[in-house]
Amino acid sequence: MALQGAQVVSSDIDLPTEEAARLHQARGVSHLVQYEAIDATNIPYSSTFDVIVFKSMLGAVGRLGGKQRQVHAVRQMHKALKNGGELFFAENLIGSAAHHFLRRNFVRWGKSWRYVSISEMKEFLSPFSSVEYRPLGFGGAFGRSELQRNLLGILDGLVFNHIVPDDWKYIIVGVARK
Fold it and tell me: Helix/strand/coil (H, E, C) string of 42-97?
């Protein structure tokens, strides 16, 4: 968004990493980016932002307090948006039984991360006036290297996203308007 000239607040529970600042500097947008430590369950803004974007955040929020904490984080984002503002999201879904098994047994945080279901995301986003979303991805998560994930991701786009049930997909992307 900063590459398009927008003023951006880059946040995390702790300040965003120095690596993020280096990337913004290298792309010539650091003058447009303000860094803040913000707890998603206690956002210190009301009716401030035109757009809020998050990726793979609710699982971490949920591991510290379950579903209610995830609901509260989305409500806080709703509060921080201006009327007509939009929430763009990409979040990890529970996925298939195979995803669940592999995460619990082979992903370092897999036992503590609270993955969400599509129905929970719909519930979390219920205060918004409109919500559009799409579940996607099945094979990409099974890759062991970046190359494998990319190749399986191509198969997702060409085949799996069209034939695999939504409840087996492991990502949900979308936009919700306040």
Answer: CCCCCCCEEEEEEECCHHHHHHCCHHHHHHHHHHHHHHHEEEEEEEEEEEEECCCH
Query: How far apart are alpha carbons 20 and 144 in whole angstroms?
Result: 25
Measured CA to CA, the distance from residue 63 to residue 32 in angstroms comes to 32
Averaged confidence pLDDT in the chain? 95
Cα distance between residue 159 and residue 39, in whole Å? 38
The amino acid that residue 151 corresponds to is: L
Retrieve residue 56's tokens.
């793979």
pLDDT tens sequence across 150-161: 999 999 999 999
Which tens digit of pLDDT belongs to each residue from 162-172? 999 999 999 99
Residue 17 sits at φ, ψ, to 5 deg, of -65, 160
pLDDT at residue 65 is higher than 90: no
Q: Where are the domains of the chain?
A: 38-137+167-177
pTM over 0.85: yes
Identify the CATH assignment for 38-137+167-177 out of 1.10.1200.30, 3.40.50.150, 3.30.559.70, 3.30.110.40.
3.40.50.150
